[in-house]
Amino acid sequence: MGPDASVIVVTLQALSIGFDAHQFRAFDREAVEVEFGVPREWEVSTMTAFGVAAHAPGELPGVSRDRRSRDEVRWARVSAERG
Predict the structure, then answer these.
(1) Does 51 reside within a domain?
(2) Within a domain: 68
(3) How far apart are CA 46 and CA 3, in angstroms?
(4) pLDDT at 13
(5) What's the whole-number mean pLDDT along residues 26-51?
(6) Residue 73 forms part of a structural domain
(7) Structural domain tally of the chain?
């Protein structure tokens, strides 16, 4: 089983016992590698938080933070190409 499948399995298990799962990439990779003694040949790429989300059971979670619309987001590369 590859890393993607393992995240799917543990997420489904969490959901089956009433927990929510949220996968994310915004964290201090070096600190995690040091704290948990991750071997050099491994790469920490994502983390998953498990818990009970702040929404009613059976409801889909809403947006957890304010976000800009896609039209408001401008990437540096696109801006440079357009001059």
Answers:
(1) yes
(2) no
(3) 10
(4) 94
(5) 92
(6) no
(7) 1
| Domain span at 42 | 3-55
pLDDT digits (tens, 9 = 90+) for 12-38: 999 999 898 988 888 999 999 999 999
More confident residue, 55 or 6: 6
CA 77 to chain centre: 25
Question: Across the chain, what does the average pLDDT equal?
Answer: 79
pTM, two decimals, is 0.57
Q: What are phi and psi of 63, to 5 degrees?
A: -70, 130
Contacts of 14-23 with CB under 8 Å at 24 or more apart are: 14/50, 18/52, 18/57, 19/50, 19/51, 19/52, 20/50, 20/51, 20/52, 20/53, 20/61, 21/48, 21/49, 21/50, 22/48, 22/49, 22/53, 23/47, 23/48
3-state secondary structure of 60: coil
Token output for 44: 């920490």
Residue 33 lies in a domain: yes
